[in-house]
Amino acid sequence: MLRVALGYLAVFAEQSRNVTQNPLYTYYGGGNSFWWFLFWLALFFILPFLFGDYYQLLRLSGTINRLLVDLGRVLNQNIANVVSTIENIARRKNISTPNRSEIENRIKDMIEYVVITPTQIEPQGLVSKLKHLIILYDHRLEELVRRIIPVDKPIIQNLASSIEALRVLNYIYKIIMHYYKLGMKYKNPYLLLQVYMALPQIKEFVNALNGAISAFTKGQPIGDSAGPLTAYKFLKEKCEEVEPLNHSIENTYIARCRYRNKTVYIIKALGPGSNTGRLDDAVIYLVERCGVKPKMIITVDAALKLEGEKTGSIAEGIGVAIGGIGVEKFNIETIAARYGIPLYAILIKMGVPEALTLMNKDIAEATSKSVERICRIIDENVRDNEEVILIGVGNTIGVGQ
Amino acid sequence: MTSLDLVILYFTSITICAIIVLIFITYFFMRKHVLMPQPVELVTTKAVTVLKCPLCDYRLRRGFREGDHIGAISSETCPIHGANLVVEAVYCETEEKKE
Fold first, then answer.
1. ipTM of model
2. Of A200, A204, A360, the CB nearest to B94
3. What is the pairing mode between strands A240-244 and A387-392?
4. This model's pTM is above 0.90
């Protein structure tokens, strides 16, 4: 190739001595041709303006098409992983399940499951309606998993969470496919540009979901488990006379303990299965049914960090540290405002991939530091024989009590 | 060198420059890692379980096994007290490239 190029250059140098015989001279129309002028005008000025959108469409569609192929592969791999997990559990526990294709079909039906949000034209009672729907959805998903494999509740909860993550993955796939098809249908690059601009974040979120499904199927604690883990560590390392309370609140653990002559009520989701508990119901139960008069309510939760912030750094503040739709946050804020209870919050910072995938060492160590922060807050603000409510917010997968 | 030679040289260099610029633009747009973060599965991670004796500070660090969860009582025992070890932590260790 190099030899050919050098040969060509030698020929060109030889011919350039006689300009009229130069092939480039003839090619460019003798240097003063009108056609030559038109050609360059078209190449640099007319074509980009006329076909610029078309070139852009080609480039964007190529990139988004590759993303869709990747997404489809990730989705299929994860469905296969969940099916294999179900088969392995069934084999280990000697339980009969439907065959592989039947399980796969049922999972595919479950990931298409929709939750229709209540109407917002009349906001009266919207929070209770939302809560009703969330509880209904959780029960329905667990019931559908139980029909495939009737096992213990923690395993059912872990599998239901895996399928929930699959559902989100499928939804992302469908949304991107929608914009891709729409852009190609109307030959509109600006529809594709919307997806293209959000591509790095989409890819990061998909990778996080990919890791989350793996952690859910194995029952490993994720970054979001930092809140329940902090509550667990406080309970085990700092408290004495621990007494779990009997109650009827689903998926929730409430314990009473003594910490330096103060009574601490600890609320967290009931582990080690994947669930977030009914934390607002637990607070209402303690304050309104048990007559607890807390000096303060402390919430500990994982919070999304900004780029540049360190994973595992801790922030302290006031308010209720609970994410999600806002149902539990609303209910706790309402009861705190009604009884004039101060609200303290401790946030453990992490990125989206870290919150959804297997907990890393920085976050595990940060939970110990947040326990020390809790102790300091209680020591500074609560006197002897007063009461405090501590809530470990988040998914308690892989964290017992 | 005649003026015609200069014209030819001028357009030839423009063409060569345009081709070089096109190659660079194509390379940067086609380069996958510019737009897409590394997939999670490509990062080497290892789940680790830390077990602790409830009576002393003895700790045992081993790979994650199915069924391990924080607070679970393990079948492994403390070599000093003989008590069953309790799972203290489960986390991942990521082997990252040092920047």
1. 0.79
2. A360
3. unpaired
4. no
